[in-house]
Amino acid sequence: MNTAVGNGFDAKSGPLARREHILDTAQACFVRNGFRRTTMIDLARESAIGRCNFHRYFGSKEAIVEALARRDRARCAVLVAELGRTASPRAVLTGVLTRTLSGITRETAVLRLDLWAEAKRNAAIAAVVERTEEARAWLGGMFSLLALSPRCQPEALFDTINPLMKGIIVNRAVLLEYDSGATIAFLDALIDAGLRGELPHAPFTAVQLNR
Amino acid sequence: MNTAVGNGFDAKSGPLARREHILDTAQACFVRNGFRRTTMIDLARESAIGRCNFHRYFGSKEAIVEALARRDRARCAVLVAELGRTASPRAVLTGVLTRTLSGITRETAVLRLDLWAEAKRNAAIAAVVERTEEARAWLGGMFSLLALSPRCQPEALFDTINPLMKGIIVNRAVLLEYDSGATIAFLDALIDAGLRGELPHAPFTAVQLNR
Question: How many CB pairs lie under 8 A apart between chains A and B?
Answer without folding.
Answer: 187
